[in-house]
Amino acid sequence: MNINFNLKDFLKYLQGYKWVIIIVPTICLAFTYFFVKTLPKTYKSEALISTGVTQQFQQAVVANGQSMDNFKLNQQFGNILEIMRSKRLLNGLSYKLIIHDLKNEAVAFKSYGPLVQKMSKVERQEAINAYTSMLINGAAISISDNEGKLKLYDILNESGYDAQSILKNLLMYRNGESDFIKVEYSSNNSALSAYVVNNLSNDFIDYYLDLGLSSQRKSIAFLDTLVKEKQAELTNKNQELSSSSVKVAEAMVSQKALEINQQRLIDIQTQRAQILRSISAIEGSITEVNRKLSGAGGYIRQDNGGENAMIINLDDQIAAANQQYSNSNFKREFKNKIDSLQKIKLRYITSNSGSTNSTVLKQELINQKIKLETDLASAKSSLSTTERQLNAISMQSGSGDGLLSVRTNNQEVMLKKADLASKEYNDAQALYEQNSIYAKTMPRMTLAEPGLQGPAEPSKNMLYLGFSGISGLLTVLLALFISFILHPKISTAAQLQNVTKQRILGSLNMIADKNKDLRDIWKNTDDIKDYTTYKDLLRSLRFELCEELMGDNKVLGITSLSKSEGKTFLANSLAYAMAMMGKNVLLICDNESDLLSVLTNKSTAQKQKFDNEQKFESFLVRKEIQIEDKITILKTNPANNSLLEVMDGKSLLAGFGILKETFDLIVIDIDSSHDMFKVKEWLMFCDKFISVFEAGNNIKSEDLSFIEYLAKQKNYLGWVLNKTKLAEA
Question: Can you give the pLDDT at residue 40?
Fold first, then answer.
């Protein structure tokens, strides 16, 4: 589909349907007027509820030092509005309304329906009792309540007091950014409107207050239990932490003592190593002295073996005494024994000296040995004491480091648990206090402004009428727009060229006169504008065709998409226009029988026939024609369906050869695309041909194949847009 929307073309298209555009909205207005004339008056009542929600949020902002959370605030108002629309509240309102009407028909908000009218007083009282019971118990109503003899569910629906019917006329919303909720209800009774908004508002306030208090009591009870649990848990954790701290302190003291013992152990081990080195040095010195005393190296004489042996024996006794002296922790009695043995040894040495020098030397060695032996005994005694201290300290030292590390880690875990328990307790305590304060200072909803009975609402009849008229107008315009888009009508040469993608030779305006005479058109001297314009446009088309019909190109065919596009009148006009240039023109057609038909555009029944009427078939046989003035008419025989059935192609070509020698121009009024085989046959003998399209028509899908066929022909010149309106020419 080729959609080419042009506003100017669309406006011109609408001009053709101006009466439809006027009549349809008028009908809509008339229908709406008679409909709204019977509409009852509407009464609206408004109630205003103060919620206190905004004040509550502002207090929270001041207390916490945070910014206002508008999302939570809007969410809170949304929850309130949903509660007001709940079935529980609406059902309660429904019960109150129906009970009010059933108790006294005189003050009923609405007239009784068929179900209530059929009920007796006893049945009405039973219905009142049933609705009252459902109101007190907060029971919901459903279709199952129709199972008894009282159709409780149907009675509510019939009266228009069911929840859905109430919601249709009920409007509840937050009043701007304020703390108030507005409740509006519209009905045909001012008392009913006020009754609905006031009862619904009061019921909601009571229900919301009970709901809030119940929720707060449950929250406070739960938080109180939670605080006690967290407090007990915190106490246990603190006790465990305290016990762990004592153990850690003891472990730290033990660790300090252990560090001191380890330092002493290191010092004693160092001292023991020094004593061992001293003992080793003393023993080496004693060995050297003994070697000298035995005469090695010629230090002393060895002439008295018995005395020497006695001296050696005394040395052994002295060594044993030194050992006993050291082991006894240096008791005095062992010291005396050592001194006694030293004196005896000294006498033997003195009595056995052979010479003064030998005696002196030997005495020095003996004194040196005695001193060394004493030092050795003292060193060994010190070594024994050091080893006992070392063993005692080693027994006191143990794996204290690991125990302290484990106890320290346990204390850190307990400390974290205690901190966590403290935090949980503080959070629970703060939440409990916050809820307690909120329960005491919780905002109380109030009915700030009750609903009152007021006058009827201004009539909206004019609004309905305006809406109806505009809707009707828009509907017509939309329908015409869709029709214009889906079925585009071609009115200009540019549109035709855009659709066909082919050359446009020219356009001719429409002449309204059905019995138009070509002679009058050409003789017109600006008296009739249609004639003048048509003549000028025809001359322009004639100029375009003359450039193409030069030399041996003398045969011009004219075809169209349909039969009513004006190709015959165009063929007649072109023949007359060419004759005006002095050319001998032959017009071949099947609609015009004589020259008078061509000139006057009148049917055969309305005019006198010429005696010299000729037929194209007669010419083909006789090869004779009659020429009158510059235009000659040859009529085809409509009874023949095919040109090639009259005579073979060679004879036809020969006949056209004679015609081309006789006439300056041959114009053939060819059939339309509906007789495609005839078009193809005639085009075999045309040097050039054009097609005609009537302005205001549209190109259908079945016409596209014919347009494609035209585009493939080498001798095709293009389109002529016919019957255009004068303003478009």
Answer: 77
